[in-house]
């Protein structure tokens, strides 16, 4: 039964009933955990004797062409004793992988032959996007732990067409996906399989200074054969983990790297632009200009890096996509600007649906870089200068960032500071602190954070954080925090998260999805691959789940939201496709009205149930799709939502994706509104090779009748040096003139040049 209006007061939870509720969940949680201990036999500890892979010294520089034809490769010692990780954990792979390693005074060379009985016919690659999606492509990648502390990893990955993917990882939890290192890879394809040839400069790698003649580093190599969705590794790890778990890695020995020394990368740029505005207050109809700026990266040592940016520009950054949001909570748009993306994992701790500490619809992020250099609408605010210093080692990690944002007619000049320190404790634990400061002429906001991570053993871990904020204007102080226990094996993933955000908590350089809330969000997934699964050639696993969310108003203790996300049917296919259904009975008490997509919903108590059906095909094929349809009651009416995405990639050089989102309201809100709101988008990528690409997207929103598009030509004319030509068009309703459409167009040309000294 649906309830509506202020007259229907929500139930208050007395301390006894709240205690009983938590006791019931705790009891259930303990029972399930006991079952986990009794049933899990496939999770194994790291081998006490690490697998070894030896590198051989050579004198000459190799020709990197993806063929391994240089005579020096005959001196290398091949290694091919790989183990299958998924789906047949622990078995010998059906397709052989052979790797070799060489080095000289300049480079570490890795050559990998990925044998395949079907040769080129088995290869799956859908596009040439850098940092490509490894779930939709064949790939081979290595993890290198130069400090040999079994926690840190530099990751270098490629696919059969030589597309690069690189990032930094820490404790297999924090990842700098947008770190771009200076390295080279080329590939070749034949009837026997495909070959990847890597050349990684010592200056790109991070490693400890040593007095020993030879060094041994943590090392693993991971291969995916996407056609059959198989995964192999040099040093095995449980299939519920990933190759980033460096405590499971082997070692590469016999290395003689030069002593780590300081090196400098400079990257100046020149930009020219033409801008056109229509019906935008404070803007000339036509504008333009030129801009000079750049960045300097000084690797003071293998541990410490200083980044400087001057007259910063992000014209080449991918534009934000529109989102039709039907929830009460703010949408977190991703950071896309390179300066802020690098080393983001050191500063980017947080709680939220996409983080390790899943908090349901609660998100706490003490530092969020999009609060710098962008206004509330995502429009750029000039950044005059900035600096970032980061130091990482086997024991400690610390860093600081300072940014000066130029004053404009709508905002004063602002100084931003972020400081971070964390210390590794034991084998897999960590304690850290973070502080952010935003200071302008009207207010100084300070946020302090303490956080910790404890990995008790291979399966059990605890994550926690505590925040305080203070604003000098009004002398206002607030608090937020969260703690999560997490259990993961091959059969189970179980967590329990407690979150709190006070009414006055204000992270001015961070992000929160809501305030004045206490969240209790346990969850459980079961992964079954036993002998009773039918159609085993088609179905890989059965994965039912239960996600429970309770939210109380922090200031009153009142229950304001409750939901149970029950998914008794969810299957993963051998191809990587999936099918599933989630039913979510929900109770909400709105303390104030809100208007999703212009549909006004009154404050009050509501009970409704949503259903969601998901279906996705093999994403590595030339034609693939994902679809989910949500239906059911929604507050005092009904809402049917359709999300469809279709990918067409006839060859890896051409990739086109079409997306369609429809929200169909039926008698919803105070006006019993019935309407459809559609959001249509098309994205295309046309690549001559991984270094020369034309990328574009178009979106149309029927609610605002807005047409937005972005077209970007990108040419990496030498490693990490680019020429960009960018065109942006954005339409929106004017905020100052009712029923008036505003438009802005930008044509930008930019050239950057990277020089490593």
UniProtKB/TrEMBL annotation:
SUPFAM superfamilies: CBD9-like. CDD domains: CBM9_like_2. It comes from the Bacteria. Residues 266-350 form the DUF5916 domain. InterPro entries: DUF5916. This is DUF5916 domain-containing protein. The lineage of its organism: Bacteria, Pseudomonadati, Bacteroidota, Cytophagia, Cytophagales.
């Amino acid at each position: 039964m649906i309830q509506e209006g202020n007259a229907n007061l929500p139930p208050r939870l007395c301390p006894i009933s709240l205690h009983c509720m938590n006791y019931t969940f705790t009891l259930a949680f303990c029972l399930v955990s006991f079952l986990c201990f009794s049933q899990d036999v496939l999770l194994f500890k790291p081998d006490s004797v690490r697998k070894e892979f030896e590198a051989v010294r050579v004198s000459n520089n190799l020709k990197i062409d993806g063929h391994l034809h240089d005579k020096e490769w005959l001196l290398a010692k091949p290694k091919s004793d790989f183990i299958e990780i998924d789906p047949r954990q622990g078995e010998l792979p059906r397709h052989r992988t052979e790797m070799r390693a060489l080095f000289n005074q300049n480079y570490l060379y890795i050559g990998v032959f990925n044998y395949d009985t079907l040769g080129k016919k088995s290869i799956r690659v859908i596009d040439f996007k850098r940092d490509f999606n490894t779930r939709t492509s064949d790939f081979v990648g290595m993890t290198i732990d130069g400090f040999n502390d079994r926690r840190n990893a530099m990751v270098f990955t490629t696919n059969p067409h030589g597309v690069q993917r690189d990032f930094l990882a820490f404790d297999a939890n924090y990842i700098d996906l947008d770190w771009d290192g200076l390295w080279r890879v080329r590939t070749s394809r034949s009837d026997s399989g495909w070959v990847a040839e890597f050349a990684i400069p010592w200056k790109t790698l991070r490693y400890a200074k040593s007095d020993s003649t030879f060094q041994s580093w943590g090392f693993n190599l991971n291969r995916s054969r996407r056609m059959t969705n198989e995964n192999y590794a040099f040093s095995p790890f449980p299939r519920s983990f990933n190759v980033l778990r460096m405590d499971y890695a082997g070692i590469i020995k016999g290395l003689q790297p030069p002593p780590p020394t300081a090196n400098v990368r400079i990257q100046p740029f020149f930009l020219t632009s033409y801008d056109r505005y229509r019906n935008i207050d404070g803007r000339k109809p036509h504008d333009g200009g030129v801009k000079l700026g750049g960045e300097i990266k000084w690797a003071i040592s293998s541990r410490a890096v200083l980044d400087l940016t001057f007259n910063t520009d992000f014209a080449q950054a991918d534009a934000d996509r529109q989102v039709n949001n039907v929830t009460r909570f703010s949408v977190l748009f991703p950071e896309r600007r390179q300066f802020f993306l690098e080393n983001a994992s050191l500063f980017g701790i947080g709680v939220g649906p996409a983080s390790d500490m899943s908090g349901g619809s609660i998100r706490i992020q003490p530092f969020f870089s999009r609060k710098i250099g962008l206004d509330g609408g995502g429009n750029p605010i000039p950044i005059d200068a900035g600096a970032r210093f980061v130091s990482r080692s086997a024991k400690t990690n610390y860093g600081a960032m300072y940014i000066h944002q130029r004053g404009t007619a709508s905002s004063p000049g602002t100084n931003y500071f972020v400081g971070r320190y964390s210390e590794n404790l034991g084998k897999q634990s960590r304690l850290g602190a973070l502080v952010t400061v935003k200071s302008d002429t009207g207010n100084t906001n300070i946020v302090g954070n303490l956080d910790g991570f404890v990995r008790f053993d291979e399966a059990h871990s605890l994550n926690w954080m505590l925040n305080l904020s203070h604003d000098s204007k009004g002398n206002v102080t607030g608090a937020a925090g969260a703690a999560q226990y997490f259990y993961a094996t091959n059969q189970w993933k179980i967590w329990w998260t407690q979150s709190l955000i006070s009414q006055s908590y204000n992270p001015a350089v961070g992000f929160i999805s809501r305030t004045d809330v206490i969240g209790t969000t346990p969850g459980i997934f079961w992964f079954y691959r036993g002998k009773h699964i039918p159609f085993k050639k088609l179905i890989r696993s059965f994965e039912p789940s239960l996600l429970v969310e309770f939210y109380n108003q922090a200031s009153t203790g009142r229950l304001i939201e409750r939901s149970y996300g029950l998914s008794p049917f969810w299957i993963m296919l051998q191809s990587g496709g999936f099918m599933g259904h989630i039913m979510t009975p929900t109770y909400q008490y709105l303390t104030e009205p809100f208007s999703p997509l212009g549909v006004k919903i009154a404050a009050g108590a509501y009970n409704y149930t949503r259903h969601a059906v998901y279906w996705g095909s093999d994403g590595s094929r030339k034609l693939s799709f994902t679809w989910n349809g949500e239906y059911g009651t929604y507050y005092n009416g009904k809402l049917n939502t359709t999300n469809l995405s279709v990918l067409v990639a006839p060859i890896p050089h051409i990739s086109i994706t079409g997306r369609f989102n429809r929200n169909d309201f039926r008698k919803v809100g105070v006006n019993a509104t019935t309407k459809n709101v559609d959001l249509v988008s098309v994205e295309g990528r046309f690549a001559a090779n991984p270094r020369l690409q034309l990328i574009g997207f178009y979106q149309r929103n029927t609610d605002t009748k807005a047409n937005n598009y972005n077209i970007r030509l990108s040419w990496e004319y030498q490693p990490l040096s680019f020429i960009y030509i960018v065109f942006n068009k954005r339409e929106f309703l004017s905020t100052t003139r009712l029923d008036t459409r505003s438009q802005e167009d930008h044509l930008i040309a930019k050239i950057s040049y990277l020089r490593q000294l």
